[in-house]
Design a protein that fits this description.
Elements (H helix, E strand, L loop, with lengths): L2 E5 L5 H4 L13 H14 L7 E8 L1 H12 L7 E5 L11 E9 H11 L3 H16 L7 H17 L5
Parallel strand pairs: 1-2, 2-4
Antiparallel strand pairs: 3-4
Helix pairs in contact: 2-5, 2-6, 4-5, 5-6
C-alpha cells in the first residue's frame, strides 16, 4: 500500500509552524501508509492493499479550480478524492487506487475553527479521502453514519482520539 506524497503548497508556514512540530511527515510516506493500513483493517477491505495512493497538498486556488472543473462547485474545499481509472497493469506491479488532494490553507482554517491541531485535521482529511477511495460516501444518513464511524475508529486506532 504505497503512498506517494507531493507538496505543491508554496505557503510553507502551514507545514512548518510551531503547531506542526508534532506533524506527521509531510514529505515522507510512512505515517500515511500506517493510516491507510488502519483504514483497510477497520473497514475489513482486503482487495486494495497493494494499490498506491497519491497524496498531494495544495493551495486554495488549486483546489478551487479542481473542485470547479470536476465537481462543478466553484469554491475552496478541504479535500478531494479521485479514484484511478481502472487499467490493467502487469502482474506483480502496483496499481493506482487514486489521488487525495488536501488544501493546507483550508485545513489550517478548520483546525483553528474546531480547536484541533493541524496534525489532527490533516490526518482526519486523509482518512476521509482514503475512505472515499475505498467506496464509502456520505450522501445518505446511513452512508454518513457508516463512513463517520469508520473515520472515528481510525482516529482512535492511530491515537488521535480517546
Amino acid at each position: 500500500m504505497p503512498v506517494t506524497v507531493i507538496n505543491r503548497d508554496s505557503k510553507e508556514e502551514y507545514l512548518n509552524s510551531e503547531t506542526s512540530k508534532e506533524l506527521i511527515s509531510i514529505s515522507g510516506a510512512a505515517d500515511w501508509q500506517k493510516i491507510t493500513q488502519l483504514c483497510y483493517e477497520i473497514t475489513n477491505i482486503q482487495d486494495h492493499r497493494n494499490k498506491e495512493i497519491c497524496l498531494s497538498f495544495c493551495e486554495a486556488s488549486e483546489i478551487q479550480e479542481l473542485n470547479r472543473n470536476f465537481r462543478n462547485k466553484d469554491k475552496v474545499t478541504d479535500v478531494l478524492s479521485f479514484n484511478a481509472s481502472p487499467i490493467k497493469v502487469p502482474e506483480g506491479e502496483i496499481e493506482a487506487l487514486g489521488d487525495i488532494i488536501i488544501c493546507t490553507e483550508r485545513a489550517a482554517e478548520q483546525a483553528k475553527e474546531f480547536a484541533y491541531s493541524l496534525r489532527r485535521e490533516l490526518i482526519f482529511l486523509f482518512i476521509h479521502g482514503v475512505l472515499h477511495l475505498l467506496g464509502f460516501d456520505h450522501e445518505t444518513e446511513d452512508e454518513a453514519k457508516e463512513m463517520f464511524d469508520f473515520q472515528k475508529q481510525v482516529l482512535i486506532s492511530y491515537g488521535i482520539l480517546d
